[in-house]
Amino acid sequence: MSFPNPFFRWRPHPWHGLEVGKNPPQLVQAFIEITPFDLVKYEVDKVTGYIRVDRPQRTSSHPPTLYGFIPRTYCGKRVGALCKTATEGDGDPLDICVLSERPINRAEVILNSRVVGGLKMIDGNEADDKIVAVLDNDNFWGNVNDISELPEILVERLRHYFTTYKMVPGSEHHFSIENVYGAEHAFEVIKASMQDYEDVFGS
What we know:
This protein is α+β, with helices and mostly antiparallel strands and 203 residues long. 18% of the residues lie in helices and 30% in strands.
């Protein structure tokens, strides 16, 4: 029996075994960990590649978009250098938020997404950028090319979610959104994260 090429005898690791995308940094692949319907924070286990329960969400906020990461990226020194107030990246794959008109209510899916901008988030002293993208072949959002073309309320919801989703009442928090940036800077962040990945893991 012959198998199609490429054929993986075992499931590829979502972070290391999938491709960055068809045409990075403009068109990238996203591995989705959380949907707008989830009230539990899930994330990929770095060792096994399976989805792990990180924590139930303490606040009532729902993720405004699909949320995951771009494979074969890493937020290290190069990503940190693009942020004025960070000393380094957060040591994780680069996060991505993807808009889709039609509800996608399951995680552990991969999709092609077109990058339109991002949020410069600082968590402690680390850069924790959130790339913003649209589903590549979306019938509603498909013609958006820059975050400035999105309704302001959507960007406001993203800002609110990421500045509150880790909050614990009575405790001091150390995260903030430094600024919202457009597609051109987002491309630079993605290219830096791809270079950081090669520095740490090789090509």
